[in-house]
């Protein structure tokens, strides 16, 4: 049944990691599993996460490396201290919802990928209706995405978002124009950790969009307390202290003051003054 969820799994994992993902069925066990790896690497050269149903209400996600991943591992070992810190925080976040085991008894605070035998195993139990879309998506978010996102951080994926378009107007509706824009990196792994640390609840008005909109999705945004547009050189962000989740209304409201947005406390005081 998990094989029928491949499109859902790929979408969730690509959005969560910021990396293109390949996947395939693994029929080597009693129940069909799904293997996932980075699309720009051959499977044998990539870190691989295998998501497997176990027991009656359990899923296991196991990270391992392909047989010829030595060059990939060497590149990951060159990651900066900040990248390693974020990767460890991503893996540590799994422990809030699953049993976590890291190779050779290493801990979430000090693990390193020393060779191709490195593994991480996360098991989540007590999953009701585990093959429903919502359950599969939640399992991906809690087990697969943080682990693969940690590997993406070490490997060096950095997706880029374009800034707002320039003020130049097209001469006619629908006209095609070439615009050169400044682009600044926004790391989806920071967003992932921010929401796992703070929860998907607005830190100004306390709205929980997921409860309000239901099937329409949890509409939550991540706000940089120091705006990216005001920063000079790119710098690492600590999701615990530099980022907060906001509902779209509050996020828009804090940016009505420019160039320095309203602080959460300032905007919150405006709400309480009504």
The sequence of SSEs as H and E is HEEEEHHEEHEEHHEEHH
The total tally of domains equals: 2
Query: Any guess at the CATH architecture of the largest domain?
Result: 2-Layer Sandwich
Mean pLDDT: 84
Strand count, sense and barrel status of the largest sheet are: 6 strands, antiparallel
Q: Tell me the CATH topology of the largest domain.
A: Yope Regulator, Chain: A
Range of helix content? 25-40%
> In terms of per-residue confidence, which ranges show pLDDT below 50 for 5 or more consecutive residues?
160-172, 177-185
What is the tally of helical segments?
Answer: 8
Principal-axis shape equals globular
What structural category do the secondary elements indicate? alpha+beta
CATH class of the largest domain equals Alpha Beta
How far is it from the N-terminal to the C-terminal residue, by CA?
52 Å
Radius of gyration: 21 Å
Tally of DSSP β-strands: 10
Strand content: 15-25%
Write out the strand line-up for the largest beta sheet, numbering strands in chain order.
1-2-3-4-6-5
